Amino acid sequence: MRSRTTFYIALGRLLMVDLGEDDEKFESFMAPITSTMDSVASQLVAVGNNAFQQEETKRTLVGLCRDIRGLAFAFNSKSSYMMLFDWIYPTYTSVLLRADRMVVP
């Protein structure tokens, strides 16, 4: 699980070689992460605050955070970092904030 951050740092750096400011490439690269984040968000809506009591949801969320952390480390230009920020905010910020309040004691 801890290798995911390193893996996404490497993937992010490879993406940066070819990315430039191409939003379509970024969106297609983020598609698996987007679908997983949408799944966690729907679990949160369906189950409510008890969603983070389930171990599978916790592991999924921790993995997503490791993936996003790896990408944030790899994206070292303003345009690429802003693409990542625009992806997170405002769509997934509420999920991450609720997760922080629920998972961290």
Automatic annotation (TrEMBL):
Top-rank lineage group of the source organism: Eukaryota
Primary location class: cytoplasm
Compartment annotation: Cytoplasm; Nucleus
Entry protein name: Exportin 7
Any GO molecular function: nuclear export signal receptor activity
Originating organism: Desmophyllum pertusum
Family: Belongs to the exportin family.
Keyword DNA repair: no
GO biological process, one term: protein export from nucleus
Entry keyword set: Cytoplasm, Nucleus, Protein transport, Transport
Underlying gene: XPO7_2
Keyword Transport: yes
GO cellular component: cytoplasm; nuclear pore
